[in-house]
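Hey, can you fold this one?
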Amino acid sequence: MANPDRKRNGSTTRVYADMVADLFHYGHVEFLRQVSEMGDYVIVGVNGDDISEVYKRRPIHSMEQRIASVRACKYVDEVIPNAPWLFDPTWIEIYNLSLVVHGDDYSDEKQRDIYRVPIERGIFRTVPYTKGISTTKIIHRRNQRQLELNAAI
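Sure. Predicted structure:
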């Protein structure tokens, strides 16, 4: 699912990031912008509903909607649906990944558990988490506003 609108300089640094990408917002865009600065071809794995529910929460948007949002981002070249949460060497080889990137919001232990293989290979990087925005905060704000509206009725 390559994005034909992306223009690259011919280098071969393939950067991979995984995400749920639910309620796509400027924090996601900022993350992907930073990821794109690390290489020449950006691949985003969108985690499936079942995996997302185990590690975070069940997504509000469907897989198709989340893929469409990520694909529309100008920093993304390719989107892989139902990406695994945990890495194995095969995943890195199949997609010929040069770097694997995630936000710096995970604890060191969680990071080691999920990204053990790319860490051992020396191809794991983090980027700063965008402060002040998250899907969880958006959901919380929406729920608060709904409660306020209900109380005013």
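Residues 135-152 form the longest helix (18 residues). Let me know if you want another pass with a different chain boundary.
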